[in-house]
């Protein structure tokens, strides 16, 4: 068994990109220090920010909430709370809401729960049934993701949040970068970064990603070592999407060429500011208000209202 490169105790992880090994305690210190560095270098938090964490009950957002709690101790004027969206997928039995509530109790932070059923009139089971009736081939995850993001932004704003934390990690960012290339979606590439800050508008709560430099396997270990309550129920509507293909491709690249994800994200970070200049000086992205709900959109209707119209709700 490998030994910890810091203290010589038994190691629980060897970082593939650097060959450094850590025992549990040294790993936790290393992991939290790197997240703090991500926050500091990218200036993600102001001392008086009111921070909402979009908490799904999974390991990523749960780890993000846990670390934000430890950071918020050092910023006594800041406020921290969590928002969970209950999409209403019956197979998950509300387990993600229970796990999120347990974590918030453990961290001693406020927890707000909103459901698709109450906010949209339909839960995910009903949305899927409606799309089948309509012979609509849009994937359930497209509906779910758009509605969840829209609801999270609106609720975070209504609750007074100045920042919205998401659990996106290094692997997610690398996969998203590759997907944007494959789809030739460079305007979306321009909006990538540790803070989704291209849109400066009071209606939009800036989203920050403290785990953006942290690989998924390390978040997994962090959640286990911290014994975070997590939801184990998966969703039956998960589709074989391009992201899943990217996960497989990414895992292969990372195993054969450790450090690939870091390099992809570095490339994205160099490219995004150049693309932002291009798009802000051009006419491609014009942000206005949705004629139905008033939320931000580059078209007449925001994506959530477009999908609501499709469903007839
Ligand atoms: S797998 Fe898709 S439908 Fe299910 S909760 Fe996740 S995004 Fe929603
Ligand atoms: Zn150690
Ligand atoms: Zn709208």
What percentage of amino acids are in beta strands?
A: 5-15%
Bound ligands: iron/sulfur cluster, zinc ion
SSE pattern:
EEHEHEHEHHHEHHEEHHHEEH
Summarize the amount of helix as a percent range.
40-55%
Arrangement of strands in the largest sheet: 5-4-3-6-8-7
Tally of separate helices: 12
Describe the fold and architecture.
By secondary structure, the protein is of the alpha/beta class. It has 12 helices and 10 strands. The chain has helices at residues 24-41, 59-72, 95-107, 116-120, 124-133, 140-158, 170-182, 186-190, 216-225, 242-256, 260-281, 303-311, and strands at 13-14, 21-22, 50-54, 79-86, 110-115, 163-165, 195-196, 207-208, 288-289, 296-297. It has a 6-stranded mixed sheet, with helices on both faces. Helix 2 (59-72) links the parallel strand 3 (50-54) and strand 4. The longest helix is centred in the last third of the chain and has 22 residues, at 260-281. The radius of gyration is 20 Å and the shape is globular. The structure holds iron/sulfur cluster and zinc ion (ZN) (2 copies). One zinc ion binds next to helix 12.
């Amino acid at each position: 068994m490998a030994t910890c490169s810091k203290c010589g105790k038994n190691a629980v992880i060897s970082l593939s990109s650097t060959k450094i090994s850590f025992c549990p305690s040294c790993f936790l210190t290393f992991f939290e220090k790197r997240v703090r560095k991500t926050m500091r270098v990218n200036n993600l938090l102001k001392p008086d920010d009111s921070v909402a964490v979009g908490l799904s009950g999974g390991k990523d957002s749960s780890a993000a909430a846990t670390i934000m709690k430890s950071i918020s101790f050092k910023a006594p004027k800041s406020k921290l709370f969590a928002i969970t969206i209950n999409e209403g997928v019956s197979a998950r039995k509300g387990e993600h809401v229970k796990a999120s509530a347990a974590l918030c109790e453990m961290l001693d932070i406020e927890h707000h729960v909103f459901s698709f059923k109450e906010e949209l009139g339909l839960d995910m089971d009903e949305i899927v049934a409606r799309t089948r009736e309509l012979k609509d081939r849009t994937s359930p995850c497209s509906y779910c993701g758009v509605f969840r993001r829209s609801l999270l932004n609106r609720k975070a704003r209504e609750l007074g949040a100045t920042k919205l934390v998401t659990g996106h990690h290094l692997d997610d960012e690398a996969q998203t970068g590759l997907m944007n290339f494959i789809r030739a979606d460079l305007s979306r590439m321009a909006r990538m970064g540790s803070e989704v800050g291209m849109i400066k508008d009071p209606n939009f709560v800036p989203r920050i990603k403290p785990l953006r430099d942290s690989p998924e396997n390390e978040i997994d270990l962090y959640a286990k070592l911290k014994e975070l309550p997590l939801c184990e129920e998966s969703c039956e509507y998960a589709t074989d999407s391009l992201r899943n293909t990217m996960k497989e491709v990414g895992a292969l690249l990372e195993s054969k060429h450790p450090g690939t994800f870091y390099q992809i994200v570095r490339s994205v970070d160099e490219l995004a500011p150049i693309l932002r200049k291009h798009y802000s000086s051009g006419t491609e992205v014009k942000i206005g208000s949705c004629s139905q709900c008033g939320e931000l959109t580059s078209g007449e209707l925001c994506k959530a209202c477009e999908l609501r119209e499709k469903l007839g709700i």
